[in-house]
Amino acid sequence: MTLSHAACPLCRDSGGRLVVQTPLWRVVRVEDDANFPAFYRLIWQDHVAEFSTLTPAERTVCMEAVAAIERVLLAQLRPTKVNLASLGNVVPHLHWHVIARFEWDSHFPNPIWGARQREVSGEAAARLAVPLTELDQHVIAALAGVHA
Amino acid sequence: MTLSHAACPLCRDSGGRLVVQTPLWRVVRVEDDANFPAFYRLIWQDHVAEFSTLTPAERTVCMEAVAAIERVLLAQLRPTKVNLASLGNVVPHLHWHVIARFEWDSHFPNPIWGARQREVSGEAAARLAVPLTELDQHVIAALAGVHA
After folding, report:
1. CB contact under 8 A, A74 and B52
2. How many Cβ atoms from other residues are within 10 Å of residue A50's Cβ?
3. Euclidean distance between CA atoms B135 and B148, whole angstroms
4. pLDDT tens track for A49-60
5. Residue A1 has pLDDT above 70, yes or no
6. H or E stretch including B43?
């Protein structure tokens, strides 16, 4: 799927709350959906659509960063599962969703794009073991240790 | 999320039509959903839940295989987009979905787990540029060139 650089929202905007970036990628926290507060997105800085377009070395850089975010979520939040996805049907600019999922969350065990399973009383963010701003700091620290 | 090896469907069964395997992973074609015929799954042979549990070298092996499958889908089918995902909420045994998506498919641009967008007349598989058994052969050939 083609989408020009000029028309691409991920070339124009950050795509979320900027957490940390390098010349190759940036990591943002996604604040679009209060049901899933522990939701980061790694966005490849270059406007490429498909993961396999990257060189092998770039793919390793990309996925080691994704894995570092996942490890932070696992260590800090003890989620039921972490979900990883690179879809890009709407915005074909390479980005990886990294989402902590919990048995109590609104859609579990469905994907976040699937059918809602339950109503969650109160704010989902308040149920997390650490505040989101603190979680961001752990992500920054973890990504500082990743080659890029 | 914990699930014992003994109770794990991906330890007991292939998880789809077996296409090719190595000691580290196997690739199956998923035949559960006729809406998405060009759908492969790379299943890590060991019973691990999370991608970040792998060693860096294993992650590279895993994602180079995923990228090889993606390249076959792009080259043979010219899909609108390829979708990659490792979710595992129901079966927390590491597996990667690799799915060719088309503007005409039943759910596009939604994720395959989202809301249906349209009815597709006839078999989706019949719209593909090559038959699925031929596509499998291209996947086998591509994965033969991937380390491990």
Report:
1. yes
2. 20
3. 21
4. 999 999 999 999
5. no
6. strand B39-44
Count of A–B CB contacts within 8 Å?
Answer: 114
For tokens 């060693």, name the residue. B55
Most B CBs within 10 Å: which of A89, A91, A101, as the mutation test of the B interface?
A89
pLDDT score of A3: 80
Measured distance CA(A139)–CA(B54) in Å, rounded: 19
Low-confidence ranges of chain B (pLDDT < 50): none
Q: What is the pTM of this model?
A: 0.97
Q: Dig out the tokens for B35 from the structure.
A: 């809406």
CATH number of the structural domain A9-142 = 3.30.428.10
d(CA B101, CA B117): 13
Least confident among A2-16, A106-120, B28-42: A2-16
Q: Is A30 left (phi over 0), alpha (psi -120 to 50) or beta?
A: beta
Collapsed DSSP state (helix, strand, coil) of residue A29? strand
Contact residues, chain B, for A84 at CB < 8 Å: 51, 85-87
> Which residue of A1, A60, A101 is in closest CB contact with B89?
A101
CB distance A27 to A41 below 8 Å: yes
